[in-house]
Amino acid sequence: MKESVPHIIELLRKAGGIIMDIYGRGESGAELEWKADNSPLTLADRESHNFLVHHLAQINSQIPMMSEESLHIDFEQRKEWQRYWCLDPLDGTKEFIKRNGQFTINLALIENSIPCLGFIHVPVTGNTFWASRGHGAFVHNGECDTEIKASQKKDDWIAVSSSSHATESENNLLAQFPVTRYIKAGSALKFCYIASGVADVYHRQGPTMEWDTAAGHILVEEAGAYFEYLSENKIHYNKPDLRNPSFLVRI
Prior knowledge:
Elements: H1 5-23, E1 33-34, E2 40-41, H2 43-59, E3 65-67, H3 75-78, E4 83-91, H4 93-98, E5 104-111, E6 114-122, E7 127-132, E8 136-140, E9 145-147, E10 157-162, H5 168-174, E11 179-185, H6 189-195, E12 201-204, H7 210-222, E13 226-229, E14 247-250
Parallel strand pairs: 3-4, 10-11
Antiparallel strand pairs: 1-2, 4-5, 5-6, 6-7, 7-8, 8-9, 12-14, 13-14
Helix pairs in contact: 1-2, 6-7
C-alpha cells in the first residue's frame, strides 16, 4: 500500500479543497446539524466523507472503511477485519464552525489492530503529514516530502492542549514533565506539532474516538516520540467500544 501514498495524498488534497470551498462560503456554507451524541455535523464533513470513501474504494475495494460519518458497523462483523481504513473526514468540526482554521482530515490504514500507514491533511495550508510503519514520518507540501523528527529536548518543554477540551486534570499530569510553556491547537494538529518538534508533550483525558487518534498515533511514533494509552487494554484499534482511553504523547 505504500506505493499508493502519492495518490492518497492527492485525494486528501482534493478533499481538503472541497472543505475549503465550503469554508469559504462562511456560515452559510456550514449547513450545521447535530448528531445523536450532540456533536456537530456540517456539509464539509459529509462532502469530504463521500469523496474519500468513493475514491479509496477505487484503490482497493476489498479494504473496508470505518469513518466517523459512516453507519457504525457492529463488532461482530468488524472483528473479522484484518485490514481497514480508519477515517475522520473533518477532525475539528467545532474549530471549523469557529472559523479558526484548526481542522484536519485524518486517515489511517489499520492492520491487525495497529496503524501501519497514517495521514493528517491540513486543508488551510495544504500540507499533509504522513507516516509509514518502519519508514519514518514526513510532511508533503504539495511538491515534495520532507522528513520530520520529534524534539529531543531534556527540559524547557512545550505542552500542547486542545483548543476546545483541555481540563485541569490533564494539566495536573503534565506537571510531571519539565513544561515551561503551553500552547493550544485544535484537531489532530496537536500530533503534527509533536511529530515536527513544535511541541513536546500532549495529554488527553477526555473522550476521543479511534478515528481521532489512529493517524496521529503512527505519525508521532515514526517521528521518534511515544504514544501511550493509559489503560490496561493492549488492543488499540477495532475495539468493541470505539472510544479511546486517556492517552499521553511525549518525546
